[in-house]
Amino acid sequence: MLPKLEEIKVLRKNLNISQEELAVQCNLTQSTVSRIENGKEDPPYSKVKRIFNFLEGEKTRRRNITKTIKDIVTEEIISLSPKDSLKDAITLMSQYNISQLPVFEDSRNFGSITAKKAQKLIMENPDLVNVKIKEVKELPFPEVEENWNLRDVSDMLLKYPAVLVKKFDKYTGIITDADFL
Questions:
Q1: All domains of the chain in start order, with CATH
Q2: Residue 98's pLDDT band (boundaries 50, 70, 90)?
């Protein structure tokens, strides 16, 4: 059983498809699509079937196109060492317009520092601007392999400011909330 004709317009608009594009895909004219959508034409079953088959197929096709970690990861990881100062962290965050940095020691995920933490420390004590990162670092960002499900990474970002991406124990990038927008 086919859906109601009134659903054609809703489905088409939800898929952001123009009447013209729908017409071309279904071998119809744009005016025919318009008349069907507005209830001014009682189309034969074959036309209705063609339209719904295309719209449902397009909906399924778009649903199956999923981004992967590789599609959104920022490959250049801006990082600090534990010996760097809080001032170095602030400089890098300003320079690259980022709000968190991983801290690496000997290619190991040693910790992190966020703009919120840096701001809090400096507001409490301006002299802390010269403190070493190893003294004020936060927990390391979680790590995932490149083949992880993007939905799981998105869920992790609800709890952590960033996630580091690895491939064969080598860091290949970083993902933050901004990468999902």
A1: 6-64 (1.10.260.40), 69-180 (3.10.580.10)
A2: very high
